[in-house]
Write a structure and sequence with these properties.
Structural class: mainly beta
Largest sheet: 26 strands, mixed
Distance between the termini: 128 Å
Number of helices: 3
Strand content: over 45%
Length: 546
C-alpha cells in the first residue's frame, strides 16, 4: 500500500513539474524549427541547417549577423499580424547562399539588410515583408555578383530603400552582375533635406546592374524645403572612378510618384538602357521655380536609351519637363506609346521633351512612333544636334509650340482656313513616265514674310526638322498671286485681303502615282516663327480620275 501511494505521488509530482515547463515555452520562446522551440531568433538561426525553415512566433530583437545558410525565416502559421524583428545591426547574406525571409516586419536604425564582404554570389529573397529603416537603408548593396528579389510588402526609409554602395570595382563579367527584382512592393522614401537621394539607387561607381520593377509603387516624399531627389537614381556620384557602365532599368505596370525634382535621374554613366512600359511617372513638384523632370539625364552620360511604350504609360509633370536630356552623348529617346503631359503650373517655359547642349559629334535621336504629347507649352524642344524621326503619334501641335533644330514652329492660330487645291501638269495620263504637281491655296496677303509647302511621300507627319529630310521637300516663296489659272480659266481671290499661294514639285514618277502624297502649307512671320497649317493627302491617280 505504501509503495502504491508513493508511486501515485511520484506520478503526480511529475505531472505538476511538467505543467510549468510547457507554459514557459509558450510564453517566452520566439522561434521554432519543426517542434523544437528557441528562446531567441539568433538561437534558432544558429541551430538551422541548409533547407530548414525557422518560424518566428512573436515580436523579437535580433542583433544582426552574417547568415551563411540556405534557410527560410518566416512568420509562423496562424498569426494575425507580421512579427516585428528589431535589429541592432544588419542581416548579411553569406557567400553562395540563398536566404529567404517571408511574412515578417523589420525595423532598424541601421541598414536592415546588407550585402558586403562575404556576400559573393548570394541571393536574398524578401517575400511579403515590411521593412523600415530610420536613418539608414532598408537594403544596402556593397558587393558585386548578388541577386535581390523583393516580392510584395511595404518598405520605408528616410535615406534610401534599395541602395548600392561605393566600394565595388567596375566589372563587365556576367558572374559579377548585380540583379535587383522588385515585384508587387510599395516603397516610400521620406528623404532628408538636401542631397541627391532616391528610393532606389545604384549609387557610386557601379557597373553591370539590372533593376526590374514590376507591379510596384515608388514614392519620393520629401519634407518641405527638400530639393534634390528622385524615385530612381542611376549612375555614380562625383569622382573619377565613379562612372557606371552597363545599367539596365525596366519598369513595368508600376507607378513612380515624386514631390521633388525627378522621377528618374541619370548621371555619370557610359551606357544605360531604360524601358518604361505601361507605367506612370507623376512629378508633383512643390515649388514652381524648381526645374523638375519626370526623367532627367545629365551631360556626364553617354549612350543612354529611354523607351516609353504601352498604351497605359504616362509621364505627367507639374514642373518643367517630362523628359530632359542635357548634354548627353549619343542619347536615344523612343516614344513608342503612352502619353506625355505637362500641366499648367505657372512656369513660363515648360517642355514635354527637351534636348539641350547635345554634342555635334555625338548627336541625340528622338523617335516618335506612337506616343501622344499633350502640353499647352512646348511639346518638343530639340537642339540643332538632335535628329528627329516622326512616324506616328499625336503631338497636339494645335496646342503647343515646337522647337526643332533651332527652328520655332507651331500650328497655333495658323492662317490657312481655305481649301487646298492640287493640279497636275497638263497632258498627264496614267501612262506618263512622270508629272509635276502644283498646290494652290488662298492665304492672307499681309502679316507674313514667307509662305511655303512641306511635301512628302509616305511620311505621316510633316514639320520642320525631321532627320529623314530626304523624304520631305520644302518649297518656299515670298510671292503671292492675285489670280491663278485652272483648266484655262482665270480664278481670282474670293476673300478680301487674301491672295493665292501657288507652289509645286516636279518629277513625281509613275511608280508613285498610287502612293499617298502629303502636303502641308506653312507661313513664316517677321520673327522667324513657322506657323503650320493642316496636312492634306492625295494621289496622282485620284487627281487623274477627278
Amino acid at each position: 500500500m505504501k509503495k502504491q501511494v508513493f508511486s501515485f505521488l511520484l506520478a503526480l509530482v511529475l505531472v505538476v513539474m511538467m505543467i510549468p515547463l510547457t507554459v514557459s515555452a509558450a510564453d517566452t520562446d520566439v522561434a521554432k524549427i519543426g517542434d523544437v522551440s528557441y528562446a531567441s531568433l539568433a538561437d534558432a538561426i544558429n541551430a538551422a541547417t541548409d533547407g530548414q525553415t525557422v518560424e518566428v512566433l512573436k515580436d523579437c530583437n535580433f542583433a544582426g549577423a552574417t547568415i551563411s545558410k540556405n534557410i527560410t525565416v518566416k512568420a509562423a502559421e496562424g498569426l494575425t499580424a507580421k512579427p516585428l524583428i528589431t535589429t541592432a545591426a544588419s542581416i548579411v547574406p553569406g557567400a553562395n547562399t540563398n536566404l529567404t525571409f517571408e511574412g515578417l516586419a523589420f525595423y532598424s536604425t541601421k541598414n536592415v539588410f546588407s550585402f558586403g564582404d562575404g556576400s559573393d554570389t548570394s541571393t536574398l529573397n524578401l517575400k511579403n515583408c515590411d521593412v523600415e529603416s530610420n536613418g539608414y537603408y532598408c537594403v544596402f548593396i556593397d558587393k558585386n555578383g548578388i541577386t535581390l528579389n523583393i516580392e510584395g510588402g511595404k518598405y520605408r526609409s528616410n535615406w534610401g530603400v534599395v541602395i548600392c554602395g561605393a566600394t565595388m570595382p567596375k566589372t563587365d563579367e556576367e558572374r559579377t552582375k548585380i540583379t535587383v527584382n522588385i515585384n508587387g512592393a510599395e516603397m516610400t522614401q521620406t528623404a532628408n533635406v538636401g542631397g541627391m537621394y532616391a528610393v532606389i539607387s545604384n549609387g557610386n561607381g557601379k557597373s553591370n546592374i539590372e533593376i526590374n520593377v514590376e507591379n510596384s509603387t515608388l514614392f519620393a516624399q520629401a519634407p518641405e524645403g527638400a530639393t534634390g531627389g528622385a524615385c530612381i537614381k542611376i549612375g555614380g556620384n562625383g569622382g573619377a572612378n565613379n562612372i557606371t557602365d552597363k545599367n539596365v532599368l525596366n519598369i513595368r505596370n508600376s507607378i513612380l510618384k515624386s514631390n521633388v525634382q525627378y522621377g528618374i535621374y541619370v548621371a555619370r554613366t557610359l551606357k544605360t538602357d531604360i524601358t518604361l512600359e505601361n507605367s506612370e511617372i507623376m512629378l508633383e513638384n512643390p515649388t514652381a521655380a524648381t526645374a523638375g523632370s519626370c526623367v532627367k539625364v545629365d551631360g556626364s552620360t553617354e549612350n543612354v536609351t529611354l523607351t516609353v511604350k504601352g498604351d497605359n504609360s504616362k509621364l505627367n509633370s507639374k514642373s518643367q519637363y517630362c523628359i530632359y536630356f542635357n548634354g548627353s552623348k549619343n542619347a536615344v529617346i523612343n516614344l513608342d506609346g503612352g502619353k506625355l503631359i505637362v500641366e499648367e503650373t505657372g512656369i513660363t517655359s515648360a517642355w514635354a521633351v527637351s534636348t539641350y547642349n547635345t554634342p555635334a559629334d555625338a548627336p541625340a535621336t528622338v523617335n516618335v512612333n506612337g506616343s501622344e504629347i499633350d502640353t499647352a507649352k512646348v511639346s518638343l524642344s530639340l537642339d540643332g544636334s538632335t535628329k528627329l524621326n516622326v512616324t506616328a503619334g499625336n503631338i497636339h501641335e494645335e496646342k503647343s509650340i515646337l522647337y526643332t533644330n533651332g527652328t520655332q514652329q507651331t500650328a497655333k492660330g495658323h492662317p490657312f482656313t481655305g481649301t487646298q487645291y492640287a493640279q497636275l501638269l497638263k497632258g498627264t495620263t496614267k501612262d506618263s513616265e512622270s508629272t509635276n504637281v502644283r498646290f494652290a491655296m488662298q492665304v492672307p496677303t499681309e502679316g507674313y514674310a514667307k509662305y511655303g509647302y512641306l511635301v512628302s511621300v509616305n511620311n505621316k507627319i510633316l514639320f520642320f526638322g525631321l532627320a529623314n529630310g530626304e523624304k520631305i521637300r520644302s518649297t518656299e516663296t515670298t510671292t503671292l498671286f492675285s489670280s491663278i489659272y485652272a483648266n484655262g480659266e482665270k480664278i481670282g481671290s474670293d476673300v478680301e485681303g487674301q491672295s493665292w499661294l501657288a507652289l509645286g514639285i516636279d518629277g513625281v514618277l509613275k511608280a508613285d502615282f498610287d502612293t499617298e502624297i502629303r502636303v502641308r502649307p506653312y507661313a513664316i512671320d517677321a520673327s522667324g516663327k513657322i506657323i503650320l497649317g493642316e496636312t492634306y493627302a492625295f494621289t496622282v491617280s485620284n487627281l487623274l480620275n477627278q
